[in-house]
Amino acid sequence: MAVINVSRELLAARAAYILRGDDLGELTTAAPQLYPHLWSWDAAFVSIGLATVSVPRAIAELRTLLRAQWRNGMLPHIVFGPDVDYFPGPDVWDSACAAAAPRDVRTSGICQPPVHAIAVRHVLAAGRRNGGADRELAERFAEGTFDRWLAWHRWLAEARDPSRRGLLEIYHSWESGMDNSPRWDSTYANVAPKVDLEVRSRRDLQHVADASQRPTDAEYRRYLWLVHQMREARYDDDAVRETVDFRITDVFMSAILALAADELAEVGDEFGRTDEAAELRTLAARFRAGVLSTVSDETGLARDEDIRADTWVETETIAGFAPLLCGADPSVVRRQAALLSGPQWCDHPALRYAVPPSTSPTSPAFRPRTYWRGPQWPVMNWLFCWALERQGVAPALAARIREDSLRQLADLEFGEYYEPLTGEALGSAHQSWTAAVALDWTLGPAA
Ligand code: 2M8
């Protein structure tokens, strides 16, 4: 791949242009062709990027997501926008059968990682940096929506951590956001669809040169079977937990909850919600401890736990670095920072750019061109970089990830993910969250 010498200004301008192109008004599609609707965690990252160019537009994005919030507090993983054909669409989800679903917005029936409070704080900070009307708007937004974000965190802590271990359970790999990561392989091996569900026109296969870059149809049939099971349970939290074939604790999502609860606690303090801020910090401590409890002495990586099979998942994926994200015991953090900087991960000699691949290149599960099985994801680079900078740990690692990510993004493709050995952009082009992180890195507070 040719290296293009691109200035920060050009990268920022191009990223803003891409986001503008993906914008339907108050909803930014996750990608213009492949994902023509709003995805929950994409929307949070998108609003972080938008906040650097328009605080009101960033707020509008988060409000669109909030309008789709379920009555139990859940933020659904997809908010369907205009009537664009997408499979699996609203008919497959049939969220109207759920007592808690909103009546006037069409959504999916599952959730995604709770990065939203991180976005709320970014928007608030951007409003304050700009001052004037932006400041007023951002403060009114943060204060006025605090209870909605709080309800989201409470729902996760109650419905998804029933035994209060500080580890969130998920019932579909789509909830993790890392759909076909090898983290889920052993659990999916035990999922046997009892109904033959039709895998209709998959958009992803129309957008990649080679179907092997995406999940197989057999994987998709399992994905659809789980949706079928949840729909049968009318998306009732207790019923889903008892009946669905896929039940696993997600250590990465748990770390994100710990981080986000701390961020939301800061917002609570600022607006006089002291009791709720204390509740959120207790919640953050519970999940931080939960994440720590999964760390393998042998590998130093955090692990998911398959609840039905009662086994730890030992695959070497990026999720193993959950403690590095949320902060944990200093010796664990030190060991993880060294591991992530080292030759099994960012410093692997075959990598084009020194940013974390989704699976270690030394793992037998590594597939450099297949979605969450090996490629590098700019949005994950941003998350690690931000979390490390926030804690003030491993500054050299954070700086290297940021620098190499920016070099990777200089192809101006804004790919969904990147081939780690060649640096090639793969998946969707013009992916919104990729453009958003480029904007924050080039125009945001730490640019
Ligand atoms: C991918 O997920 C969707 C399913 O929800 C898909 O495979 O169709 C994941 O990368 C997920 O993390 C992301 O939020 C979504 C939209 O970018 O795409």
What is this structure's SSE topology?
Elements: H1 8-21, E1 38-39, H2 40-50, H3 55-67, E2 78-79, H4 90-93, H5 116-130, H6 132-159, E3 168-170, H7 173-176, H8 185-188, H9 203-207, H10 217-232, H11 237-243, E4 248-250, H12 251-270, H13 274-292, E5 304-306, E6 311-313, H14 322-326, H15 330-341, H16 378-391, H17 395-409, E7 417-418, E8 425-426, H18 432-443
Helix pairs in contact: 1-18, 2-3, 2-5, 2-18, 3-5, 3-6, 5-6, 5-12, 6-12, 12-13, 16-17
Bound molecules: (2R)-3-hydroxy-2-(alpha-D-mannopyranosyloxy)propanoic acid.
The site of (2R)-3-hydroxy-2-(alpha-D-mannopyranosyloxy)propanoic acid (2M8) has 9 residues, from helix 2.
Element order, helices and strands?
Answer: HEHHEHHHEHHHHHEHHEEHHHHEEH
Structural category: mainly alpha
Helical percentage: 40-55%
Number of strands: 8
* Contiguous helical run count: 18
The pLDDT mean sits at: 95
Shape annotation: globular
Strand order of the largest sheet: 3-4-5-6
| Radius of gyration computed on alpha carbons | 20 Å
Poorly predicted regions? none
| Ligand list | (2R)-3-hydroxy-2-(alpha-D-mannopyranosyloxy)propanoic acid
Tell me about the biggest sheet?
4 strands, antiparallel
Sheet-strand content, in percent, reads under 5%
Straight-line distance between termini = 26 Å
